[in-house]
Known about the structure:
Number of helices: 12
Low-confidence stretches: none
CATH topology of the largest domain: Isopropylmalate Dehydrogenase
Distance between the termini: 44 Å
Order of helices and strands: EHEHEHHEHEEHEHEEHHHEEHH
Amino acid sequence: xTNMVKIAIDAMGGEKAPKKIIDGIKISLETNQNxxxxxxxxxxxxxxxxxRNKSIIKHCEIINTENIISDDESPLSAAKRxxxxxxxxxxxxxxxxxxxxxxxxxxxxxxxxxxxxxxxTIKGINKPALAALWPNKHNMNVVLDLGANVxxxxxxxxxxxxxxxxxxxxxxxxxxxxxxLLNIGLEENKGSEILKKTYSILKDNKFKNFEFCGYIxxxxxxxxxxxxxxxxxxxxxxxxxxxEGTANFITKNLKDSLNKLSIxxxxxxxxxxxxxxxxxxxxxxxxxxxxxxVVKSHGSTDHIGFAHSINVCHKIVKANLIEKIESNLITxxx
Length: 334
């Protein structure tokens, strides 16, 4: 098992768990059998699901935990009463080096708080950030922060740039990714004082771990001209939710607007369009800045989306993401 990536999974987190968790593991093993899964949750319930998928049993170990953190529970309540929960124990396994990475489709706020409680931050990082993949015209962007930090200073945004570029290098073959700051204009004097200070620091970056491309406006996020887009968590979360809502609106209304004949004649083009906007392909947000990696799957995704998040976990561990972040950091006093 020395070459295996050991993934600690909160098997009770998210909608239709643990069924979609087990089904997602099965799909992931069809293309990659170099993962081993530590499944934290109610043993009998998980065993029942595994009995329907006996071919994957040898790739899994069940660690019994009776407590479950619900989706509507507050992060503070989860932190107080969640020490015996499947989410807590999955993250705690990183602390004791029993796993390489943790994955949950459960309560996002609880996941972030418990991760901060149990895991130390990387030296030099003040605020971890939530990063995710975002489709663009050519391939994918990494965007951060998407909600972990409402307020950020210039040091935080510079740290996000370093962490985001390290993540992009881990997921894709690119040694010099392009970084841009999300702003209301492209001119150097536009935006808040924090953005202007961040721009100045990144512009003078001598480490050359990434190429700084200045500002980017929201309507150009999907153009594919940059690889990493940096913003504070408040702005990033609004941008993410707006994009998700717009994509859902377009696909639903496009379907409603076409008759059966039009759909048949345009089937291949429509399928390609739908696949491009399929959120399951981009499932798996990464909590960056901790000494061990934690990945958040969307709670409402299905087994196919969960399989994609497992693939993200494997790539992160194999590419030594934490070491890349540590070597990428730029010293900033703030």
